[in-house]
Design brief:
The complex is a heterodimer of chains A (481) and B (185). Chain A is built from 15 helices and no strands. Chain A has 481 residues and is an all-alpha fold. In chain A, α2 runs antiparallel to α7, α7 runs parallel beside α9 and α14 runs antiparallel to α15. Chain B is elongated, with a radius of gyration of 24 Å. Chain B starts with a helix and ends with a strand. Classes of the chains: A mainly alpha (481), B alpha+beta (185). At the A-B interface, α2, α8, α10, α11 and α12 of A face α1, α2, β5, β6 and β7 of B. The structure holds protoporphyrin IX containing FE and copper (II) ion. The site of protoporphyrin IX containing FE (HEM) has 25 residues of chain A, from α1, α2, α13 and α15.
Amino acid sequence: MASLSLKKITAVWIYTILILFVLAILMGITMRFTQGKTISVSPIEFYLLMTTHGVTMIGIWAAAGIVAVNYLLARYIKVSTSLNVFALVFTVISILMLWASTFIGKFHAGWTFLYPLPFHIAWETWATPMFLWSLMVLSVSWFIWTLGSMVQILKKYSLRQSFAIQHISKKSPSVETPPLVLISMVSLLGMVVCFIAAIILLALLLAEYYSAGKFVNDPLLIKNLTFFFGHTIANEALYLGLATLYELLPEVSGRPKFKTTWYVALGWNCAIIFILGAFFHHLYMDFVQPKGFQIFGQIASYFATIPSVVVTIISIVTLLYNNKIKWSLVNLLFFIGLMGWIIGGIGAVIDATISNNIILHNTLWVPAHFHTYNVMGNVLFSLAFFVWVANEFSDNNDLQKYNKLVMPLLMVGGFGFVLMFYWAGAYSVPRRFAMYPSELSSGTALASAAAWFACIYLVGVLLVLFDVLKKCAKVFSSSSH
Amino acid sequence: MEEHKFILFLFLSAAVLVAGIFHFLYSTTLNPPSESEGLQNPLKKRGFVLVFMFIVFVVLLFVTVPKSPYFLFSNETPAKVVYVNAQQFAYMMSYKSIDLNKPEIETDVELPLNEPVEFRVTSVDVTHGFGIYNSKAELLIQTQAMPGYVNRLRWKFTEPGKYNILCLEFCGSGHAVMRSSFTVK
Ligand code: HEM
Ligand SMILES: [Cu+2]
């Protein structure tokens, strides 16, 4: 079980994540209103908001996943509080450096900081190294955090058991691996690999920066590394969200716990291989990239969905179908999050088809699908965990008492917001345009509609936030538990 | 082009279908028949879904991969070659290879109708995009403009008129106004 100190650090993490979330949503709404010409913001300000919003959002929801599995893993293994304190300290330092580089230094090369844009300095000269070092601090500390989390698991389970390999070969093995442990292990491994890639990427960029022209990088190689990192972290964060779903959904729905079976084990072990190869779809429009990689990218993107989606859907249908369920905010958030995840996945598969990508690449279709499985997927998984854990922290333990407006607000706001992206994307409106050219004025109208939908979503988030923050505060006044 | 509408339609139908399935699943949890025991034979159904998705994906791969832009008009000889050099925040275009010391820039690029043409796209500074839009502001085709590399994009224009080029890779504060155009006659 979680110790009091683990509870406290989890509460501090939740405070940090939710406050940053609200600020990042406000940046997003500002961008959408700017594109909709409702307000006026200069292109440089737009792009520094875009850069800050992107890194902050990716960061906090990856963190939320790691925090949640760490908390829940304490049911099976010994979880170190200091590891989570260490990660929080360095995350905050890194975020402060990042925001300094963008808000003060005006750095605005996008969250993917595609080489060589960071070196074509159109901002304060110190802002480029500040931005790169902020990500270096984050990557190194999170490398330690995720690797440390894996080591904690390996102290209790053997390497084979932590990946549930014994479930593939034997029908009822003597040691059972809970799905939470298996999925955490698979996703943490993916994250460790992706932070190694990030550290190499940032080291190459910093080397070029400090060599004053003696060392020059290859743009195609750097682009591959950039998206290996960017695509992988976004996806593994989602898988960590699913890990919490496997652990908590049956419990709060009054159904028997999920068990790892041979197909759950096999599915998740396959997922890791495909997900690491799917990033190639970010380079479809680089025709100099070897064709074999391009086609492998499409195959990997398709098959990455099969193991996790099919296994998860069958598990959920088995759990719910024709069974009386006590619905509360927690399982509703998981349930709708799963739906958002799948709908976003459909958008992703359409875009990952090379012959569609030719007219969708870098249009608003891209933020459309990744916002769907974040805004209406992973965020909801993490909010479900926050609501659940906040209830655990407070003595008032009735999960079924909740504000009935939350789900309608999140659904209308969230799905409305992403629909505007899909619509504009299908009609060729580019992403990352601070304003749209006159021939694409439909993009302008859709942008301001999207901003209003996002405001509705924000109200839903605030309702959850107030409740969660109030209940989390209880953990600091209690000395027992 | 119908393609754009079709993609949106395909996606929306799939999304509505998923929402319908979730709604149905939800409704079965409210007042399940008391003698019900939930889902029967989940393993068998899972096998069915797995095989079904596998087949769908393999078929889709066989249908879509050959349509990839890398194979477009690959065994025809282009009637015209256009050299494109992208630069923050404009495009240099020429019928001849561009010598950066004394570039000979074509201001009114004209391309033939119904004949394959080739764009050789590169960049002199950061990575840019090269997206070709028709007169109805629909994206037809695109490639990236990456420094140090030349991407060759082949296309056959079947309608005469003015075509716009928009930058489709974020390249800095002027990204949204980086554009050019050419005519097809
Ligand atoms: C309601 C909440 C949100 C709003 C209003 C919002 C809004 C936006 C907008 C307007 C953009 C720029 C789109 C463009 O390219 O023109 C954007 C980009 C982005 N958003 Fe969000 N967003 C929200 C939630 C999220 C969440 C939850 C994530 C989680 C991962 C996220 C991650 C990103 C990323 C990675 C980018 C790309 C930044 C870049 O292009 O450099 N957003 N968002
Ligand atoms: Cu650009």
